[in-house]
């Protein structure tokens, strides 16, 4: 019986791949990235200030700054593949790209399909008020503290629904409801606040960070309300080595303080991030 011998230039994985017995998604992606000198990343650059396209067509923002450092660490070129957000996880799982670079809310459902990196962002709603208004004190914010006040919120959004939920809770406690001013744009919520038609603006913390950058001496964030979700990237489940390289770079930026510098520059707000135990159970 003859023993099969393969040319030394071929690995067993490569032979199996050529025979169709090993899928491209199960090959070692990190070795492949280093061999081809390119990190192919799926992205939907329509989520400013995290990732978006500038006037010249270049993909910029908070997350591209981090991903560029990952590519530099690996010594490879960063190759973004633009696609609709809904197609990113399917493309990743199918092996069409090496990793994904759009900001993903970390959920148990997604964690069953992909392997999350450590988080670099946070999604949570918060309250923005005028700097000269002392009624809403930082560190003392609660649903009850909003009772009887007027809140500006963008219509048909999750923050608007959350304020309506707060009103149900206030009603159950026989407290005055929050008066809602629902408008069409984020800029209109700020206008309502600064013309004193509203006492506060309610939106995602990064949206409010952008507003605070516009009027740094006129407004202040009073605190967060409601559930929060961490934001991270993902790789395929079996790409633990590539995932670790990406996570290590995020942790290195966190350790050096540069991550918070990038947060302040792009998001207008900083937040502490976990290094473990950040995936919800359900």
Structure description:
The chain has 282 residues and is of the alpha/beta class. The protein has ten helices and 14 strands. Strands 1, 5, 6, 7, 8 and 14 form a six-stranded mixed beta sheet that branches. A five-stranded mixed beta sheet has the order 11-10-12-9-13, with helices on both faces. Strands 2-3-4 form a three-stranded antiparallel beta sheet, with helices on one face. β10, α6 and β11 form a beta-alpha-beta unit. The N terminus is likely disordered.
What percent of residues are in strands? 15-25%
Structural class assignment? alpha/beta
Question: Uncertain regions: pLDDT < 50 for 5+ in a row?
Answer: 1-26
> Which bin fits the share of residues in helices?
25-40%
Radius of gyration: 23 Å
* Element order: H for helix, E for strand: HHEEEEHEHEHEEEEHEHEHEEHH
Instruction: Sum up the overall morphology in one term.
Output: elongated
Largest sheet: 6 strands, mixed
How far the N terminus sits from the C terminus, by CA atoms, comes to: 54 Å
Work out the number of β strands: 14
* Integer average pLDDT: 89
Helical segment tally? 10
Summarize the structure in short:
With 282 residues, this protein is an alpha/beta fold. 35% of the residues lie in helices and 23% in strands.
């Amino acid at each position: 019986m003859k023993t099969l011998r393969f040319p030394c230039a071929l690995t067993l994985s490569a032979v199996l791949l050529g025979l169709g017995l090993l899928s491209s998604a199960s090959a070692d992606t990190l070795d492949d990235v280093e061999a081809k000198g390119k990190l192919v990343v799926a992205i939907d650059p329509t989520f400013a200030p995290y990732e978006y396209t500038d006037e010249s067509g270049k993909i910029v923002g908070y997350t591209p700054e981090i991903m560029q450092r990952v590519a530099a660490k690996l010594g490879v070129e960063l190759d973004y593949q633009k696609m609709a957000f809904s197609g990113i996880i399917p493309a990743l799982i199918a092996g069409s790209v090496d990793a994904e670079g759009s900001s993903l809310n970390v959920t148990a459902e997604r964690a069953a399909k992909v392997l999350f990196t450590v988080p670099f962002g946070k999604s949570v709603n918060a309250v923005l008020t005028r700097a000269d208004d002392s009624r809403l004190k930082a560190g003392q914010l609660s649903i009850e503290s909003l009772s009887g006040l007027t809140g500006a919120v963008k219509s048909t959004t999750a923050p608007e629904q959350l304020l309506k939920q707060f009103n149900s809770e206030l009603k159950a406690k026989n407290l005055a409801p929050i008066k809602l001013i629902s408008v069409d744009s984020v800029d209109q919520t700020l206008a309502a606040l600064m013309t004193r038609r509203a006492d506060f603006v309610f939106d995602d913390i990064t949206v409010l960070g952008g507003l605070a950058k516009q009027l740094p001496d006129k407004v202040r964030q009073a605190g967060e309300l409601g559930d929060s979700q961490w934001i991270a990237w993902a790789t395929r489940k079996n790409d633990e080595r590539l995932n670790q390289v990406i996570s290590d770079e995020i942790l290195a930026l966190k350790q050096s303080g540069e991550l918070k510098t990038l947060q302040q520059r792009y998001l207008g707000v900083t937040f502490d991030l976990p290094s473990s135990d950040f995936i919800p159970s359900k």
